[in-house]
Amino acid sequence: MTKVHAKSAAIELRKAGHSYKYIAPRVGVSKGTLAVWLADVPYTPNLETIERVGKARAASGEAKSKLKRESFQLARREARVDIGNLSRRDLFMLGLGLYIGEGAKSTSQTCFVNSNPAIINLIIMWFTKAVGLKNENLRIRLHIYPDCSEEESLQFWSETTTIPRSQFLKTIVDWRKDKKAFKSGKLPHGTAHLSVNSLGEKRFGVFLARKILAWSDEVLGTKNAGVV
């Protein structure tokens, strides 16, 4: 079951009145993951749940679920106000922070790795809107595990990023035995390794990698200096 299908199934089971304990093993995720996925889903325990856990506990669970849902909703409303509209500089600094955490620390190559589609799309926005690259400069190589479908993974990432399949490099399948059990089912579409092709423009080649490192050094070296 893919992550998307698991989330959809979890939502339907929650709407049907089932507890996290009931849902978790059926969709293959932890209760913590369910807490995030189902934060906005109204919960009224069904008869089966009430009989299993008792009326008092079921009522308590419903009340706690409501409080948690309201807390998430309040946090999201406040976050929307806190963030507001992103300026170009906001995007520049946000993307640079992501690159410092997940980007290549190479003086000759620009590359960013992540399995979260939202993060990959944000770094693509950074590259194209803040750094000046074009979509044509971007390349993606997928790293997947044996239980992943290469075709489905390529289709997923191409649709998610709007980067055409012609700009995807040869997929790498990780066959290491020590990785199989640990990663099985956890990354249904693998990890996207986003890199830059200069297409003959020197400023997008080695120079860009060095400039990103210079930006990083400037930020990491400032501490509290210059903060306004």
TrEMBL record:
UniProt protein name: Uncharacterized protein
